[in-house]
Amino acid sequence: MLAAVIRQWHRRYPEVAITLRESTSMDEALGLVDSDEVDVAMLTAPSAGHFTITALAEEEIVLTAPTGHGAGRAAGCTH
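^ LysR family transcriptional regulator substrate-binding protein, sequence as received from the core. Prediction below:
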């Protein structure tokens, strides 16, 4: 998903440079925005506070495990 968003952005705004930074926590990512170290953050969940939230996409998260694996026997799992 991210690659497609970046390609589309670059086609639309070729003069704008994009630098990606990875963060391991939402608090850290939002701190980077607060401190003006980055302009935007892409998060997996909405954040609280004084930020404007724009949903870019919704995606289904799936678990893949071998047949018979304990994780596949959890409630709600389908084959």
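The chain is about 25% helix and 0% strand.
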